[in-house]
């Protein structure tokens, strides 16, 4: 998948039209083929871009402005509807091309399965990769109703690829007993319910290391982000999520890729969720871009 095979459409606020000069590439992964409760996250990338127009380009917490960055919005990858295997292959190929051009990939989902091919490609370039996951769900199943390519399985695949000690899971408050037992048995750095406090304790260990950050919007309590495929009560606040992004940005880790997934705008008539998603993406760009 080449950049010119994505369609441009609307773009995130402040994006440069010049790919060659950019350091970071935003790309959409409009896939929700394996949604188990509410579909609609395939519309997330487009609505996040549209909602970005409500934002200022300046972040007071990071004291940076989008005008200081050079990032390109490649639009959405045109994925084959209903075909997860081919979709994963296309996402992987696209991310590989971004990395080949020595740019940082920042993806917009889509369901959480889309993180798997992105991490796999980033790991090829950065063998010492660590992953930080902010999420309500463990996503550590081997399969969901017999399907191994599911939004419930990407972190299991990533653990098996990187090794358990290199995958850091925060905010987890939902999963099967087997998933929680697996995390304990494999000694995954696994932090249920909380995010910011344990994250600050872990980040010094990641200083100087290549890190991929994946944020599932359902790490937030549904009061703050009702528009998601599998809402889970008992989550964190928007303030805590933004402070967590800031902590990662200031940690000294080398962020080499990131994504924001599971925004399903059709499940939120208030449009609160895509606006939150746009602000989270803004902070990720300002905090993580080289």
UniProtKB/TrEMBL annotation:
Binding site for Mn(2+): 112, 135, 137, 139, 216, 218
Alphabetical keyword list: Hydrolase, Manganese, Metal-binding
Keyword Hydrolase tagged: yes
UniProt entry tagged with the keyword Manganese: yes
GO BP, sorted A to Z: putrescine biosynthetic process from arginine, via agmatine
Single GO MF descriptor: metal ion binding
Organism classification: Bacteria, Bacillati, Bacillota, Bacilli, Bacillales
Protein name, entry field: Agmatinase
Signal peptide stretch: none
Cofactor binding: number and manner: Binds 2 manganese ions per subunit.
InterPro entries assigned: Agmatinase-rel, Ureohydrolase, Ureohydrolase_dom_sf, Ureohydrolase_Mn_BS
Names of required cofactors: Mn(2+)
Similarity annotation: Belongs to the arginase family. Agmatinase subfamily.
Species of provenance: Paludifilum halophilum
């Amino acid at each position: 998948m080449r950049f010119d095979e994505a369609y441009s459409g609307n773009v995130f606020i402040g994006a440069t039209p010049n790919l060659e000069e950019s350091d970071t590439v935003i790309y959409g992964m409009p896939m929700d083929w394996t949604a188990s409760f509410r579909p609609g996250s395939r519309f997330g990338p487009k609505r996040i871009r549209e909602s970005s127009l409500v934002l200022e380009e300046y972040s007071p917490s990071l004291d940076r402005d989008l005008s200081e960055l050079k990032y390109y919005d490649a639009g959405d990858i045109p994925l084959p509807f209903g075909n997860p295997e081919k979709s994963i292959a296309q996402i992987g190929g696209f991310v590989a091309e971004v990395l080949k051009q020595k740019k940082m990939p920042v993806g917009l989902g889509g369901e959480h399965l889309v993180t798997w091919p992105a991490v796999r490609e980033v790991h090829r370039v950065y063998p010492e990769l660590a992953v930080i996951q902010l999420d309500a769900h463990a996503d550590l199943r081997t399969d969901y109703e017999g399907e191994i390519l599911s939004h419930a399985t990407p972190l299991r695949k990533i653990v098996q690829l990187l090794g358990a000690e290199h995958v850091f899971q925060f905010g987890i408050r939902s999963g099967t007993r087997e998933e929680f037992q697996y995390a304990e048995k494999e000694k995954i750095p696994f932090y249920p319910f909380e995010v910011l406090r344990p994250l600050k304790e872990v980040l010094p260990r990641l200083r100087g290391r290549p890190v991929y950050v994946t944020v599932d919007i359902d790490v937030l309590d549904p009061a703050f982000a009702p528009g998601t495929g599998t809402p889970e009560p008992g989550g964190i606040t928007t303030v805590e999520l933004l402070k967590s992004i800031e902590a990662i940005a200031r940690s000294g880790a080398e962020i080499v890729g990131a994504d924001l997934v599971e925004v399903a705008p059709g499940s939120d008539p208030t449009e609160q969720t895509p606006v939150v998603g746009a602000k989270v993406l803004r902070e990720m760009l300002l905090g993580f871009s080289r």
